[in-house]
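Reviewer has doubts. Consider these C-alpha cells.
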Amino acid sequence: MDLRPTTDPIRSLLYVAGGWACLGLAVIGAVLPILPTTPFVLLASWCFYRGSPRIHAWLHRSRWFGPTLDDWHHYRGIRRSLKDRAIRMVVVVAICTLLFNSLAWYLQYLVIALVGVGLYTIWTVPTLPDDAPAAPRMISD
C-alpha cells in the first residue's frame, strides 16, 4: 500500500474532503458520547497527509489536536487525564440524555449500547501516564 502524499488532484481533493469530514466528526464526538473523537482525528491526519501536506502540518501544529497526535505517533497511546476526562464526559452526557429526554424504551437501550461501544473504545486505547515526557513534535512550529 502506497502511503505517500498523492499527486493526483482529484484524489487529493477527495482525501482533503475526507479529512475535513473526519475532523468534523471528531469535533462532534467531543460533545456527543456516541462518537469517539481520537479515531476521527487520527483518520483526518492520515487523509490530510495523503491529500495536503499543508493542512496535515496545520493539524499537527494545532493547540487542540497537535499534542494528542504527537503522543499517538510517538507512544501509540493517549494520556490518562485525557482518557479520564473523556470517560467522565461520556458518562455524564449519557446519564443526562437518559434522564432528561423522553426517549422510547428501545432508543434508551440504543443509547446505552452506543455509549458502551464508545466506553469500550476509550478503555482499550493504550494509556500513557500524565508524567510521561512530552512527545517530540512531529511537525515543528
User: Anything to note?
Assistant: The chain has one domain: 9-128. DSSP finds six helices and two strands in the chain. The CA atoms of residues 27 and 64 lie 11 Å apart.
